[in-house]
Design goal:
Structural class: mainly alpha
Largest sheet: none
Helix content: 55-70%
Number of strands: 0
Radius of gyration: 16 Å
Length: 131
């Protein structure tokens, strides 16, 4: 179901002549404050901004970057549908990363996508493989 969207995303990114705004955003993630990171968003073109923001959301989750993750997850202009995000939320250990856990549990994402037991997820994946 996502294949046409993914293909159009790839095509849009191939047409990006100037990648410097994307680079600036990822550099800000690595080297700057949250406010400086967010200040790079208006420089992202509308055709690729959602993908860049989604990628940052996943990166912040994977790296357990609490401040950035909290901010991005709360924003309405950051889509959750980046490949791997849903599965990555299941790998958050409540004991090891309680802040990330609390952010997820209180989020609109969790309201729209409640927890599914491992057994049910495995059953669903057997019938609907994730590719």
């Amino acid at each position: 179901a996502n294949a046409p969207h993914e293909a159009s995303t790839r095509e849009a990114l191939k047409r990006v002549a100037d990648t410097s705004p994307i680079k600036a955003t990822f550099m800000a993630y690595r080297d700057c404050t949250l406010q400086e990171l967010l200040a790079t968003f208006p420089n992202l073109r509308a055709d690729y901004a959602p993908q860049v923001k989604s990628s940052l959301l996943l990166l912040a989750l994977q790296e357990r970057n609490v401040e950035v993750f909290r901010s991005l997850l709360a924003r309405s202009d950051v889509p959750w549908n980046v490949t791997g995000f849903g599965n990555a939320t299941y790998r958050v250990d409540k004991e090891k990363h309680p802040e990330i856990w609390e952010i997820l549990e209180g989020s609109e994402f969790r309201k729209q996508r409640p927890w599914i037991s491992l057994r049910k997820r495995e059953r669903m994946e057997r019938w609907h493989p994730l590719r």
